[in-house]
Design goal:
This protein has nine helices and six strands, in the order E-H-H-H-H-H-E-H-E-H-E-H-E-E-H. It has 222 residues and is an alpha/beta fold. The protein folds into two domains: 145 residues, Rossmann fold, CATH 3.40.50.1000; 64 residues, Orthogonal Bundle (DNA polymerase, domain 1), CATH 1.10.150. A six-stranded parallel β-sheet has the order 3-2-1-4-5-6, sandwiched between helices. Strand 4, helix 8 and strand 5 form a beta-alpha-beta unit. The chain is globular, with a radius of gyration of 17 Å. It starts with 8 loop residues before the first strand and ends with a helix.
Amino acid sequence: MSAFARPQHVLFDMDGVLLDTERLYTQATQSIVGRYGKIFGPDLKRETMGRDARVSARVILERLDVPLTADEFLAERGPILEALVVQCRAMAGAEAFVRVLQGLGVPMAVATSSDRALFQLKTRSHAWFDLFDVVVCGDDPRVIAKKPAPDIFLAAAQDLRADPADCVVFEDSLAGVEAALAAGMRVIALPDPVLGREHFRAAHTVLDGWHEAKAHLVTGRR
């Protein structure tokens, strides 16, 4: 049986899982570091995505030797990113999968590192986010430590009144996979092919997209 043939509670990361925004983060970051002749490549992307924004910024700037502080970088990237995500698209098949779960009566939560204001900006053209029972954002006071710490997933499980062991998490980042495992949950990775599927072996299941997820859910195949 697959990790999610009969899910009791399902938790979703948002960026790169439900919404096609990770490429926009890459674009915004590259627009800044490119001015210094640097490339924000897939290895560095894989290492920093899903983590606390300030921590990731420090790593990016140090590795690429860009003469900005993390605060300066984030202040510059913020408006660029906000302009890009206003019209962001859903990941192919994500809405359909969520609607299948909703039809089955499966309680669902979004657990995103984005703060509430940015979450609302990203989702304002996606009414289907109303299907989620719970949304926990990165600025929730219970999220003391960001991914790879388990705080955000434990907060979402708390709001769903779910035992973490009964939760399945969909993630696209290594930090998110680590956070879900630390929370005692089952985790299904949907990594961007550019980041290398082979790096996500710690996940219980690794899939190529929502079409494959739906097949597992409906048939129970491995």
